[in-house]
Amino acid sequence: MIKREAESFLRSLAADFKAVAVVGPRQSGKTTLVRSVFVDKPYVSLENPDVRSFATEDTRGFLAQFPTGAVLDEAQRVPALFSYLQQILDENQEHGRFILTGSNHFLLQENISQSLAGRIAYLNLLPFTLNELPPGAVDDADDWMLKGGYPAIHDGPGSRANWFANYIRTYVERDVRQIKNITDLFAFERFLRLCAGRTGQLLNMSNLALEAGVDSKTIASWIGILESSFIVHLLRPYHVNFNKRVVKTPKLLFLDTGLACALLGITDRNQLALHPMRGSLFENLVTSELIKRLGHQGRHAQSWFWRDQKGHEVDLLIEEAGRITPIEIKSGRTVQGEFFGGLEYWTKLSGGTAGVLIHSGDARQERSNGIKVLPWSGLFEAVGA
């Protein structure tokens, strides 16, 4: 089993809170993590129809089986649990008593906010980051983009294409219906693939609605579904205006580029190398990897991008403890002078640090203008991770 970096953060949360909810996309390794960390706790899967029936029809009796707590997998499947858990947690001061997992943040949040607020902590467990993978798991940036970080892709020699095809089908047919009763699943899957084609771009809901054949309100609702189930992340524009004429629309990113490539029909390295989306996918890769690792480490960092209406842009701003690190992301393997324009403009405008340039090659440099150049394999150095 590959050790997860989030393990330390999970243990810390369990020591500080009465309960912990581990949430994340389907197949991100939640069950494996909690069972390996809390080996002494009974494990119960609420995906099991018989167990779910018992928990739903006699919630008090179900929970009475676990006087010292338990791991409750896919807890959102039994909403009635949360009100009963509130009473149990209030009557006992023990920390780390119940560990809940769920593949849908929205359903857990809705129930927890009503019943367990202040008693429970969250850990978002996302697919593997590069540092969690064993040496040799990926050959280069393109291989990494194609494979992504879902554990099943790295467990054996199985077909990547077949796994993602089944993942997409399961997600659309099962998870989406749990979140909202969408009758036209074909339209939703078409919308999902259209989103993949907008990876790294500003989110234009009107345009997306036109192509998907639905209205803008439906698109807004469906984007919320993708966010709550950890498929996409909306990267917001930086909120401080050095110049009033700034872009205020978020960027659409996928939290796993392997899934984005599968939705785009990209099946091999040759196809990816020539694909017009390669640059956007590389930017998506670097951004999502940094967001994932900072989250798994439990660091209170925020991520943004900045762009004005004249075309000046910084791909990623990481804000932590009052300090902003500007990061420019270029898919080229050879570092060129034109890569530094956005960072230089930002430094002049903000008076902040010179920043970091991350590219898909191997060069590592310290430029005279103060900008640090890092290869894709060293991207975590950008935030001291």
Provide key terms for this protein.
385 residues, alpha/beta, Rossmann fold, 2 domains, 6-stranded mixed β-sheet, 5-stranded parallel β-sheet, 15 helices
> What Rg is obtained from the alpha carbons, in whole angstroms?
22 Å
The computed structural class is alpha/beta
Question: What is the global morphology?
Answer: globular
Strand order of the largest sheet: 8-9-10-11-13-12
| Total domain units | 2
Query: Approximately how much beta-strand content do the residues carry?
Result: 15-25%
Order of helices and strands: HEHEHHEHEHEHHHHHEEHHHEEEHEEE
Number of DSSP helical runs: 15
Average of per-residue pLDDT values: 92
Largest sheet: 6 strands, mixed
Portion of residues within helices: 40-55%
Our measurement of the CA-to-CA distance between the termini, rounded to an integer number of angstroms, reads: 22 Å
Please give the structural blueprint:
Blueprint (H helix, E strand, L loop, with lengths): L5 H11 L2 E5 L6 H8 L5 E3 L3 H9 L1 H6 L5 E4 L7 H11 L6 E5 L2 H11 L4 E5 L16 H7 L12 H20 L5 H12 L8 H8 L3 H13 L3 E4 L15 E4 L2 H8 L4 H6 L3 H19 L4 E7 L5 E8 L2 E8 L10 H10 L5 E4 L5 E2 L5 E4 L10
Characterization of this structure:
With 385 residues, this protein is of the alpha/beta class. Helices cover 41% and strands 16% of the residues. The chain has 15 helices and 13 strands. It has helices spanning 6-16, 30-37, 49-57, 59-64, 81-91, 105-115, 141-147, 160-179, 185-196, 205-212, 216-228, 257-264, 269-274, 278-296, 341-350, and strands at 19-23, 43-45, 70-73, 98-102, 120-124, 232-235, 251-254, 301-307, 313-320, 323-330, 356-359, 365-366, 372-375. Helix 5 crosses helix 6, helix 7 crosses helix 12 and helix 8 crosses helix 12 (257-264). The model has no long low-confidence stretch (mean pLDDT 92).
